[in-house]
Amino acid sequence: MNNMQTTQEKLQHIIEDMKQRVPRIMEYREGTRLWNKQWGYETNSTDVITNPGYINLQHHFDVIPMPKLTDVMEWLNSLGHSATMTSCGSLFTTKFEEDSAKWNYNKAYLQDQSGSVINFLYMHLQNS
Fold first, then answer.
1. Domain ranges of the chain
2. Which burial class, exposed, middle or buried, applies to 67 when counting CB atoms under 10 A from its CB (0-12, 13-18, 19+)?
């Protein structure tokens, strides 16, 4: 992994690792974003789950992982970095105490966080 990667590329590396360490982000449940394999479009699992024509979701759809703060905290801990969060949104770990990132509570998903949050998490992935 090199430092010249874009924020989007770093995010993809983080999410790929999270799929293994926090498997619940890949579960089919209400509200999950899905990609229709056959027709190539994105939908919400609520629309699919309520449609009786979709007996086997895994046959028709792939889950689009949408990690939230709780998933990120669990992932950091699985990397061996004891993570803590302050009430103002500062995310710290015990391994890199001098570094922190500010999680924007108004944006629920990791994909919507700032580049500084993605870089902070990517640094932890590289150093795990």
1. 1-22+67-128, 26-66
2. buried
